[in-house]
Design brief:
Layout: E1 2-5, E2 18-21, H1 25-35, E3 41-43, E4 51-53, E5 72-74, H2 78-85, E6 91-98, H3 102-112, E7 117-122, E8 134-135, E9 137-141, E10 146-148, E11 152-153, H4 154-171
Parallel strand pairs: 1-2, 3-6, 6-7
Antiparallel strand pairs: 4-5, 7-9, 8-11, 9-10
């Protein structure tokens, strides 16, 4: 098992997990493309930023200028690019955080990126999201099956996602 991770405080010490640490969106893209072709399942749990600075300045930006214009460039879409190269034996799972038209927007993302399963996170529910130890998700698969889950611990949420992935692989 390969875990490609950005800068986080996770301490992974399991003999079956190889951790590859990256610090930039471009590195994440490159590593995902290096390992996905030989993978059976890809789970893209967190998105890198949609945009990155258009220009990197190596020196400190000194005071004195009244305002700055910050130009951003889009980062490469890892999920969409992996969806384009995915073969029929691979399963690709993505995540969506939506604030409006949640089901419709998640379903559109699933189709646009050629995912097999999308995990919809909502910020509308008390206790769900990123700030706590609980979450409430909805799973939408490529056959438009929708599974809604109640608020539960993130460990239980992870189990729900894994059970769905296993069931999808068993049906192939």
């Amino acid at each position: 098992m390969i875990l490609i991770s950005g800068p986080v405080s996770l301490c992974i010490e399991h003999p079956n997990i190889k951790v590859i640490r990256v610090t930039r969106a471009e590195e994440m893209y490159e590593k995902c493309h290096a390992f996905f072709p030989s993978s059976t399942i890809g789970v893209l749990t967190a998105a890198v930023a949609d945009y990155s600075p258009g220009e990197q300045i190596k020196e400190k930006m000194k005071r004195g200028k009244e305002d700055w214009l910050l130009r951003l460039k889009p980062t490469r879409d890892i999920a969409a690019s992996l969806g384009k190269i995915k073969n029929e034996k691979q399963l690709l799972v993505g995540f969506a955080l939506e604030t409006d038209n949640e089901i419709e927007n998640a379903r559109t993302k699933l189709l646009r990126k050629n995912l097999d399963l999308i995990v919809l996170n909502s910020l509308r529910d008390e206790g769900a999201g990123f700030q706590g130890d609980t979450n409430k998700i909805t799973l939408i698969d490529k056959n438009n099956n929708i599974d809604n889950f109640e608020l539960k611990s993130k460990a239980e949420v992870a189990k729900d996602i894994l059970i769905k992935i296993i069931r999808m692989k068993d049906y192939e």
